[in-house]
Amino acid sequence: MKQYPRPLARLINEISKLPGIGNKSAQRLAFHIIDLEEEEVKKLTEALLSAKKELKYCSVCGDLTEGDPCSICSNSQRRQDVICVVESPKDVMAMERTKAFDGLYHVLHGVIAPLEGVGPEDINLKSLIKRLQENDVNEVIIATNPNIEGEATAMYIGRLLKPSGIKVTKLAHGLPVGGDLEYADEVTLLKSLEGRSSL
Amino acid sequence: MKQYPRPLARLINEISKLPGIGNKSAQRLAFHIIDLEEEEVKKLTEALLSAKKELKYCSVCGDLTEGDPCSICSNSQRRQDVICVVESPKDVMAMERTKAFDGLYHVLHGVIAPLEGVGPEDINLKSLIKRLQENDVNEVIIATNPNIEGEATAMYIGRLLKPSGIKVTKLAHGLPVGGDLEYADEVTLLKSLEGRSSL
C-alpha cells in the first residue's frame, strides 16, 4: 500500500503527539505546513525553539518567565504580604486580567490528585512553605480550579498552613463548579476574588 | 497589564496562525510544548523543516513526493491508460486505501470556486491536458469531492475533455453528499469507484 512520503509521515506523527490533536487534524496541519512559505515555517520553528530555550520558571513563585525572578516577584510596587496560589501560569494571567489583585503569586504546577499518583510532594508546595517562613505574609489566597482536585488541594494547603496562623482564604464560588479557572471571564473572576472566604 | 513573556506570546501567536487552532488551543499547545523535553521539541521542529524542505510536488501528477517523478508515476506496473483526477494529495491516499485502483493520478490542488476567485487556470489543469495529449489515455476518472465546487469542477473537466473523445467518468454517489473524500471509509469509496458513471 502507498505510504505518505517519509518526511510527511514523520511530520504527521510528530504533530499527532500534541495534546488534543488526532491523526486527521495532524494530517490537515501537516498539509497546511507544507503549503506555507519556507519563511513562515522557519518563524514557527524558531518560535518553538526559542520558547523552549528562553523561558524558565521563576525561582521564587514558579511562574513562567524570561528573567529570574519574574516581573511580578521583582516588582516592589506590588503588595508583598499577600500570595495568591494558583495551579498554572495560565491562571496567573487570568488573575492579572481582573486587575484587582496586586499581591504576589505562587504557581503549584499541578494539583494533588491521588488517583493519578500526584501527592503534595509532587507539586511546587515546599517552596511556598519556605516563602512563608522567610517573608512577612499576612494572607494566602488559594485560587485553585473549582473542581474536585482543586478543592482538595485548597483544603490540604489550608490545613497545612493552619498552625502558622497566616490567614488562608479561597476564591468564592462565583466560579462555575467543574469549570476551569483560565476560561472564567474577568467579571466572574473578580466577583470570586471579592467574595473570598476563610478556609 | 501583565503580558505573557515574549517568547511565549510569540509561540502562541505562531501556533494560532495554523488552521482550526484558536487562541485558547494555541495557549494550551504552547504550554504543552514548553513542558516537553528539549529533545522532543527538536524532533518536532526538525520534522517541520525537513517536511518543508524534502517534499515537492511531482512534476507529472502534482502529488506530494520526495523523488520526482513520484513513486506512482514512475511505477510501470500500474495501468498507464487511466488517470484519476483528485483535489489533493490526501485524496490520492484515500483512493490508494481502496486497493481497487491501479492507474495513475492527477492532483488538481484545489477546485474551481468562482466565489473565492479560483478559476480553471488557478488549479493544476493545464498539465492534465498536456498529459492527455502526450500519452495514450483511455479513461479519466474524476474523483473530486462530492460537494458543489467538486461537482462543478467535475462538470467543467468533463466538458473540457468532450472533444478529445476520451472516456470521462466520475465516482458514483455512494459518497455522502456534502462530505469530504478524505474522510470516506474504504468500502464506501470502493463502491463509488465501482459504480462510476459516464460524464
What are its keywords?
homodimer; 199 residues; alpha/beta; Helicase, Ruva Protein, domain 3; two-stranded antiparallel sheet; 7 helices; 12% strand
Biggest chain contact? A-B, 58 and 58 residues
Poorly predicted residue ranges of chain A: none
Topology pattern of chain A, helix = H, strand = E = HHHEEEHEHEHEHE
Under the CATH scheme, which class of the largest domain in chain A? Alpha Beta
Q: Find the structural class of chain A using helix and strand composition.
A: alpha/beta
Could you say which overall geometry of chain A the principal axes of the C-alpha atoms support? elongated
Characterise the protein shown here.
- The structure is a homodimer of 199-residue chains.
- In chain A, helix 1 (6-16) packs across helix 2 (23-35).
- The first copy, chain A, is elongated and about 70 Å long.
- Chain A has seven helices and seven strands.
- Chain A has helices at 6-16, 23-35, 38-54, 89-97, 126-134, 148-161, 186-194; strands spanning 56-57, 64-65, 82-86, 104-107, 139-142, 167-170, 197-198.
- In chain A, the strands form two sheets. In chain A, strands 4-3-5-6-7 form a five-stranded mixed sheet.
- With 199 residues, chain A is of the alpha/beta class.
- Chain A folds into two domains: 6-54, Helicase, Ruva Protein, domain 3; 64-198, Dna Topoisomerase Vi A Subunit, Chain: A, domain 2, CATH 3.40.1360.
- The interface between A and B is large, with 58 and 58 residues.
